[in-house]
Protein backbone atom coordinates (compact mmCIF):
# COMPACT_ATOMS: atom_id res chain seq x y z
CA UNK A 1 0.00 0.00 0.00
CA UNK A 2 1.07 3.60 -0.49
CA UNK A 3 2.65 5.47 2.42
CA UNK A 4 0.81 8.63 1.43
CA UNK A 5 -1.12 10.09 4.36
CA UNK A 6 -4.62 11.44 3.56
CA UNK A 7 -4.74 15.21 3.94
CA UNK A 8 -7.15 16.94 6.27
CA UNK A 9 -9.75 19.07 4.45
CA UNK A 10 -8.48 22.57 3.62
CA UNK A 11 -9.65 25.38 1.40
CA UNK A 12 -7.86 23.69 -1.50
CA UNK A 13 -8.76 20.16 -0.48
CA UNK A 14 -12.13 20.43 1.21
CA UNK A 15 -15.25 18.41 1.86
CA UNK A 16 -16.45 18.95 -1.69
CA UNK A 17 -13.57 16.72 -2.85
CA UNK A 18 -14.68 13.77 -0.71
CA UNK A 19 -16.32 10.87 -2.56
CA UNK A 20 -20.09 10.85 -2.65
CA UNK A 21 -21.63 7.81 -0.96
CA UNK A 22 -25.30 6.91 -1.40
CA UNK A 23 -26.46 5.77 2.05
CA UNK A 24 -30.03 5.11 0.93
CA UNK A 25 -29.04 1.60 -0.11
CA UNK A 26 -27.77 0.63 3.31
CA UNK A 27 -29.84 -1.99 5.06
CA UNK A 28 -31.43 -1.96 8.52
CA UNK A 29 -30.53 -1.64 11.30
CA UNK A 30 -29.07 1.74 10.37
CA UNK A 31 -27.01 3.35 13.14
CA UNK A 32 -24.58 4.61 10.48
CA UNK A 33 -27.29 6.86 9.02
CA UNK A 34 -27.50 8.61 12.38
CA UNK A 35 -23.72 8.96 12.70
CA UNK A 36 -22.38 10.59 9.53
CA UNK A 37 -18.95 10.74 11.15
CA UNK A 38 -16.94 8.02 12.84
CA UNK A 39 -17.59 7.73 16.58
CA UNK A 40 -15.78 5.65 19.21
CA UNK A 41 -18.50 3.03 19.09
CA UNK A 42 -17.50 2.11 15.53
CA UNK A 43 -14.41 0.44 17.00
CA UNK A 44 -16.20 -1.27 19.86
CA UNK A 45 -17.04 -4.65 18.36
CA UNK A 46 -20.81 -4.12 18.61
CA UNK A 47 -23.61 -3.15 16.25
CA UNK A 48 -21.86 0.00 15.04
CA UNK A 49 -18.73 -1.98 14.16
CA UNK A 50 -20.82 -4.56 12.33
CA UNK A 51 -22.59 -1.87 10.32
CA UNK A 52 -19.27 -0.28 9.37
CA UNK A 53 -17.95 -3.60 8.09
CA UNK A 54 -21.14 -4.72 6.37
CA UNK A 55 -22.07 -1.41 4.76
CA UNK A 56 -18.68 0.05 3.82
CA UNK A 57 -15.73 -2.34 3.98
CA UNK A 58 -17.27 -5.61 2.76
CA UNK A 59 -18.89 -4.04 -0.35
CA UNK A 60 -15.70 -2.13 -1.13
CA UNK A 61 -13.38 -5.14 -0.90
CA UNK A 62 -15.68 -8.00 -1.89
CA UNK A 63 -14.40 -11.56 -1.95
CA UNK A 64 -15.63 -14.85 -0.51
CA UNK A 65 -12.98 -15.05 2.21
CA UNK A 66 -13.82 -11.64 3.64
CA UNK A 67 -17.52 -12.49 3.54
CA UNK A 68 -16.89 -15.21 6.16
CA UNK A 69 -16.23 -12.42 8.71
CA UNK A 70 -14.38 -14.79 11.02
CA UNK A 71 -11.54 -14.08 13.44
CA UNK A 72 -9.26 -15.22 10.63
CA UNK A 73 -9.62 -16.21 6.99
CA UNK A 74 -9.07 -19.90 6.19
CA UNK A 75 -7.94 -20.89 2.70
CA UNK A 76 -6.01 -23.58 0.82
CA UNK A 77 -2.52 -22.81 -0.46
CA UNK A 78 0.25 -25.16 -1.53
CA UNK A 79 -1.59 -28.24 -0.37
CA UNK A 80 -2.21 -26.89 3.13
CA UNK A 81 -5.07 -25.09 4.82
CA UNK A 82 -3.85 -21.81 6.23
CA UNK A 83 -5.39 -19.22 8.52
CA UNK A 84 -4.53 -15.54 8.12
CA UNK A 85 -5.47 -12.71 10.47
CA UNK A 86 -4.61 -9.11 11.27
CA UNK A 87 -5.42 -6.79 14.15
CA UNK A 88 -4.49 -3.33 15.45
CA UNK A 89 -3.97 -2.27 19.07
CA UNK A 90 -4.59 1.17 20.53
CA UNK A 91 -4.95 0.31 24.21
CA UNK A 92 -4.52 3.03 26.82
CA UNK A 93 -2.50 2.81 29.05
CA UNK A 94 0.33 0.98 27.29
CA UNK A 95 1.16 -1.02 30.43
CA UNK A 96 -1.48 -2.41 32.79
CA UNK A 97 -1.78 -5.11 35.48
CA UNK A 98 -1.16 -8.44 33.79
CA UNK A 99 0.27 -7.20 30.51
CA UNK A 100 0.99 -4.47 28.00
CA UNK A 101 0.14 -3.45 24.47
CA UNK A 102 3.00 -5.70 23.36
CA UNK A 103 1.50 -8.79 25.00
CA UNK A 104 -1.91 -7.92 23.56
CA UNK A 105 -0.59 -7.57 20.03
CA UNK A 106 0.99 -11.02 20.02
CA UNK A 107 -1.62 -12.90 22.02
CA UNK A 108 -4.56 -11.28 20.26
CA UNK A 109 -3.40 -12.35 16.80
CA UNK A 110 -2.34 -15.82 18.01
CA UNK A 111 -5.82 -16.21 19.51
CA UNK A 112 -7.58 -15.11 16.34
CA UNK A 113 -5.70 -17.84 14.47
CA UNK A 114 -6.41 -20.36 17.22
CA UNK A 115 -10.16 -19.72 16.91
CA UNK A 116 -9.85 -21.28 13.44
CA UNK A 117 -7.99 -24.23 14.94
CA UNK A 118 -4.70 -23.05 13.44
CA UNK A 119 -1.26 -23.42 14.97
CA UNK A 120 0.19 -19.93 14.69
CA UNK A 121 3.60 -19.86 12.93
CA UNK A 122 4.61 -16.34 11.91
CA UNK A 123 3.65 -12.78 12.80
CA UNK A 124 4.29 -9.38 11.29
CA UNK A 125 4.52 -6.28 13.43
CA UNK A 126 3.92 -2.61 12.60
CA UNK A 127 4.90 0.09 15.11
CA UNK A 128 3.28 3.53 14.79
CA UNK A 129 5.22 5.76 17.17
CA UNK A 130 4.34 9.26 18.28
CA UNK A 131 7.15 11.80 18.17
CA UNK A 132 8.46 12.30 21.69
CA UNK A 133 7.67 8.87 23.14
CA UNK A 134 10.53 7.74 25.38
CA UNK A 135 12.85 5.08 23.99
CA UNK A 136 12.66 2.95 27.17
CA UNK A 137 8.89 2.73 26.60
CA UNK A 138 9.43 1.54 23.02
CA UNK A 139 12.01 -0.98 24.23
CA UNK A 140 9.67 -2.21 26.96
CA UNK A 141 6.88 -2.84 24.47
CA UNK A 142 9.24 -4.58 22.03
CA UNK A 143 10.63 -6.78 24.80
CA UNK A 144 7.12 -7.72 25.89
CA UNK A 145 6.23 -8.65 22.31
CA UNK A 146 9.32 -10.80 21.95
CA UNK A 147 8.68 -12.63 25.21
CA UNK A 148 5.01 -13.22 24.31
CA UNK A 149 5.95 -14.53 20.86
CA UNK A 150 8.47 -16.98 22.30
CA UNK A 151 5.95 -18.17 24.89
CA UNK A 152 3.35 -18.72 22.15
CA UNK A 153 5.81 -20.53 19.87
CA UNK A 154 5.62 -18.01 17.02
CA UNK A 155 8.22 -15.95 15.23
CA UNK A 156 7.96 -12.24 14.42
CA UNK A 157 9.19 -12.52 10.84
CA UNK A 158 8.73 -9.02 9.40
CA UNK A 159 7.68 -5.54 10.42
CA UNK A 160 7.52 -1.82 9.78
CA UNK A 161 7.90 1.44 11.71
CA UNK A 162 6.24 4.81 11.17
CA UNK A 163 6.45 8.00 13.23
CA UNK A 164 3.68 10.62 13.47
CA UNK A 165 4.00 14.17 14.78
CA UNK A 166 3.62 14.90 18.47
CA UNK A 167 -0.06 15.25 19.32
CA UNK A 168 -1.18 13.01 16.46
CA UNK A 169 -0.92 9.68 18.26
CA UNK A 170 -1.01 8.23 21.73
CA UNK A 171 2.53 7.02 22.28
CA UNK A 172 2.43 3.70 20.47
CA UNK A 173 -0.08 1.97 18.23
CA UNK A 174 0.62 -1.57 17.00
CA UNK A 175 -0.57 -3.70 14.12
CA UNK A 176 0.11 -7.42 13.85
CA UNK A 177 -0.78 -9.98 11.23
CA UNK A 178 -0.36 -13.71 11.61
CA UNK A 179 -0.42 -16.89 9.61
CA UNK A 180 -0.85 -20.46 10.81
CA UNK A 181 -1.62 -23.98 9.64
CA UNK A 182 -5.05 -25.56 10.17
CA UNK A 183 -4.83 -29.33 10.89
CA UNK A 184 -6.72 -31.75 8.63
CA UNK A 185 -10.29 -32.46 9.70
CA UNK A 186 -10.72 -29.19 11.62
CA UNK A 187 -13.60 -27.00 10.45
CA UNK A 188 -14.48 -24.27 12.96
CA UNK A 189 -17.16 -21.84 11.82
CA UNK A 190 -20.52 -20.69 13.17
CA UNK A 191 -22.47 -22.23 10.29
CA UNK A 192 -21.74 -25.65 11.83
CA UNK A 193 -23.61 -24.86 15.05
CA UNK A 194 -26.78 -26.92 15.50
CA UNK A 195 -29.47 -27.02 18.21
CA UNK A 196 -28.26 -29.10 21.12
CA UNK A 197 -24.65 -27.87 20.98
CA UNK A 198 -23.25 -27.17 24.44
CA UNK A 199 -21.79 -23.71 25.11
CA UNK A 200 -18.60 -23.71 27.18
CA UNK A 201 -16.58 -20.70 28.36
CA UNK A 202 -12.95 -21.33 29.31
CA UNK A 203 -12.89 -19.33 32.54
CA UNK A 204 -13.83 -16.19 34.47
CA UNK A 205 -14.88 -13.25 32.30
CA UNK A 206 -14.40 -9.48 32.48
CA UNK A 207 -10.89 -9.36 33.93
CA UNK A 208 -9.16 -7.51 31.10
CA UNK A 209 -11.66 -4.70 30.69
CA UNK A 210 -11.89 -4.02 34.43
CA UNK A 211 -8.09 -4.15 34.82
CA UNK A 212 -7.66 -1.53 32.10
CA UNK A 213 -10.36 0.68 33.55
CA UNK A 214 -8.98 0.51 37.09
CA UNK A 215 -5.58 1.80 35.96
CA UNK A 216 -6.92 4.33 33.48
CA UNK A 217 -9.32 5.92 35.92
CA UNK A 218 -7.27 5.41 39.10
CA UNK A 219 -9.98 3.28 40.69
CA UNK A 220 -9.41 0.88 43.57
CA UNK A 221 -11.67 -2.07 44.30
CA UNK A 222 -9.92 -3.45 47.38
CA UNK A 223 -7.98 -6.03 45.35
CA UNK A 224 -5.82 -5.65 42.25
CA UNK A 225 -7.53 -7.02 39.16
CA UNK A 226 -5.14 -8.31 36.50
CA UNK A 227 -5.81 -8.75 32.81
CA UNK A 228 -6.30 -12.33 31.62
CA UNK A 229 -4.13 -11.62 28.55
CA UNK A 230 -2.80 -14.99 27.31
CA UNK A 231 -2.19 -16.99 24.13
CA UNK A 232 -4.85 -19.68 23.76
CA UNK A 233 -3.22 -21.84 21.09
CA UNK A 234 -2.20 -24.56 23.52
CA UNK A 235 -5.67 -24.76 25.07
CA UNK A 236 -7.30 -25.05 21.65
CA UNK A 237 -4.93 -27.83 20.60
CA UNK A 238 -5.79 -29.67 23.84
CA UNK A 239 -9.48 -29.42 22.97
CA UNK A 240 -8.92 -30.57 19.39
CA UNK A 241 -6.97 -33.57 20.68
CA UNK A 242 -10.21 -34.77 22.30
CA UNK A 243 -12.12 -34.35 19.04
CA UNK A 244 -11.56 -32.30 15.89
CA UNK A 245 -15.35 -32.02 15.66
CA UNK A 246 -15.67 -28.78 17.60
CA UNK A 247 -18.19 -26.57 15.85
CA UNK A 248 -17.02 -23.02 16.54
CA UNK A 249 -14.66 -21.10 18.84
CA UNK A 250 -14.57 -17.36 19.59
CA UNK A 251 -12.41 -15.23 21.86
CA UNK A 252 -14.78 -12.68 23.43
CA UNK A 253 -12.68 -9.52 23.24
CA UNK A 254 -14.39 -6.24 22.26
CA UNK A 255 -18.05 -6.42 23.21
CA UNK A 256 -17.33 -9.27 25.61
CA UNK A 257 -19.12 -12.60 25.84
CA UNK A 258 -22.41 -11.02 24.77
CA UNK A 259 -21.02 -9.88 21.42
CA UNK A 260 -19.39 -13.25 20.70
CA UNK A 261 -22.59 -15.18 21.44
CA UNK A 262 -24.68 -12.81 19.31
CA UNK A 263 -22.30 -13.09 16.37
CA UNK A 264 -22.47 -16.89 16.52
CA UNK A 265 -26.26 -16.94 16.92
CA UNK A 266 -26.73 -14.64 13.93
CA UNK A 267 -24.29 -16.46 11.65
CA UNK A 268 -25.63 -19.91 12.56
CA UNK A 269 -29.34 -18.94 12.54
CA UNK A 270 -29.81 -20.72 15.86
CA UNK A 271 -30.91 -19.42 19.22
CA UNK A 272 -28.67 -19.45 22.28
CA UNK A 273 -29.85 -19.89 25.87
CA UNK A 274 -27.43 -19.30 28.74
CA UNK A 275 -27.77 -19.61 32.50
CA UNK A 276 -26.52 -16.40 34.11
CA UNK A 277 -25.69 -18.26 37.32
CA UNK A 278 -23.34 -20.56 35.40
CA UNK A 279 -21.32 -17.73 33.80
CA UNK A 280 -18.10 -17.44 35.84
CA UNK A 281 -17.72 -13.82 36.97
CA UNK A 282 -15.01 -13.16 39.59
CA UNK A 283 -16.36 -11.36 42.69
CA UNK A 284 -13.97 -8.43 42.12
CA UNK A 285 -15.25 -7.99 38.56
CA UNK A 286 -18.86 -8.31 39.68
CA UNK A 287 -18.35 -5.70 42.39
CA UNK A 288 -16.54 -3.30 40.06
CA UNK A 289 -19.25 -3.64 37.42
CA UNK A 290 -21.99 -3.11 40.01
CA UNK A 291 -20.33 0.10 41.21
CA UNK A 292 -19.88 1.42 37.67
CA UNK A 293 -23.18 0.24 36.21
CA UNK A 294 -21.58 -2.20 33.77
CA UNK A 295 -22.69 -5.67 32.70
CA UNK A 296 -19.81 -8.22 32.91
CA UNK A 297 -21.24 -9.94 29.84
CA UNK A 298 -20.16 -6.94 27.76
CA UNK A 299 -16.70 -6.42 29.28
CA UNK A 300 -13.69 -7.41 27.16
CA UNK A 301 -11.51 -10.47 27.73
CA UNK A 302 -8.09 -11.23 26.26
CA UNK A 303 -7.43 -14.78 27.45
CA UNK A 304 -10.76 -16.57 27.27
CA UNK A 305 -12.70 -18.45 24.62
CA UNK A 306 -16.26 -19.63 24.14
CA UNK A 307 -16.87 -22.96 22.41
CA UNK A 308 -19.93 -24.58 20.84
CA UNK A 309 -19.36 -28.33 21.19
CA UNK A 310 -21.50 -31.29 20.05
CA UNK A 311 -23.29 -32.63 23.11
CA UNK A 312 -21.73 -36.10 22.80
CA UNK A 313 -18.23 -34.61 23.17
CA UNK A 314 -19.00 -31.88 25.72
CA UNK A 315 -18.01 -33.72 28.90
CA UNK A 316 -14.69 -34.93 27.52
CA UNK A 317 -13.82 -31.50 26.10
CA UNK A 318 -14.72 -29.81 29.38
CA UNK A 319 -12.52 -32.23 31.35
CA UNK A 320 -9.60 -31.60 28.97
CA UNK A 321 -10.04 -27.84 29.26
CA UNK A 322 -10.06 -27.98 33.06
CA UNK A 323 -6.81 -29.97 32.98
CA UNK A 324 -5.09 -27.10 31.10
CA UNK A 325 -3.84 -24.05 33.05
CA UNK A 326 -5.79 -21.65 30.82
CA UNK A 327 -9.00 -23.65 31.11
CA UNK A 328 -9.00 -24.51 34.80
CA UNK A 329 -12.13 -22.40 35.34
CA UNK A 330 -14.03 -23.70 32.31
CA UNK A 331 -17.78 -24.01 32.72
CA UNK A 332 -20.85 -25.03 30.73
CA UNK A 333 -23.03 -21.92 30.47
CA UNK A 334 -25.80 -22.88 28.02
CA UNK A 335 -26.79 -24.45 24.74
CA UNK A 336 -27.82 -23.74 21.17
CA UNK A 337 -31.56 -24.11 20.52
CA UNK A 338 -33.93 -24.12 17.56
CA UNK A 339 -36.15 -21.44 19.11
CA UNK A 340 -35.63 -17.69 18.54
CA UNK A 341 -32.93 -18.05 15.83
CA UNK A 342 -30.30 -15.32 15.90
CA UNK A 343 -31.18 -14.31 19.47
CA UNK A 344 -29.32 -14.84 22.75
CA UNK A 345 -31.47 -15.26 25.87
CA UNK A 346 -30.28 -15.50 29.47
CA UNK A 347 -32.07 -17.23 32.34
CA UNK A 348 -31.72 -14.95 35.34
CA UNK A 349 -31.09 -16.03 38.96
CA UNK A 350 -34.67 -14.98 39.76
CA UNK A 351 -36.12 -17.44 37.29
CA UNK A 352 -36.94 -14.97 34.54
CA UNK A 353 -35.37 -14.47 31.15
CA UNK A 354 -33.82 -11.50 29.37
CA UNK A 355 -32.53 -10.85 25.89
CA UNK A 356 -28.77 -10.38 25.66
CA UNK A 357 -28.46 -7.93 22.79
CA UNK A 358 -25.47 -7.14 20.65
CA UNK A 359 -24.00 -3.97 22.19
CA UNK A 360 -24.29 -0.83 20.09
CA UNK A 361 -20.76 0.31 20.76
CA UNK A 362 -18.48 -0.43 23.67
CA UNK A 363 -18.77 0.13 27.41
CA UNK A 364 -15.00 0.63 27.75
CA UNK A 365 -13.21 2.12 24.72
CA UNK A 366 -9.53 1.66 23.93
CA UNK A 367 -9.18 -1.66 25.77
CA UNK A 368 -7.23 -3.48 23.05
What is the residue-mean pLDDT, rounded to a whole number?
88
Helix content: 25-40%
- Structural class based on helices, strands and sheet pairing: alpha+beta
CATH fold name of the largest domain:
Phosphoribosyl-aminoimidazole Synthetase, Chain A, domain 2
Largest sheet: 7 strands, mixed
The CATH class of the largest domain is Alpha Beta
The gyration radius over C-alpha positions equals: 21 Å
Gross geometry: globular
Distance N terminus to C terminus?
A: 24 Å
Taking strands numbered 1, 2, ... along the chain, how are they ordered across the largest sheet?
Answer: 9-11-8-12-10-13-14
CATH homology group of the largest domain: PurM-like C-terminal domain
CATH-scheme architecture of the largest domain: Alpha-Beta Complex
- Total strand segments: 14
Low-pLDDT segments? 1-21, 26-32
Beta-strand portion reads: 15-25%
Protein name: Hydrogenase expression/formation protein HypE
Pfam families: AIRS, AIRS_C
Domain PurM-like C-terminal: 195-340
Domain PurM-like N-terminal: 71-182
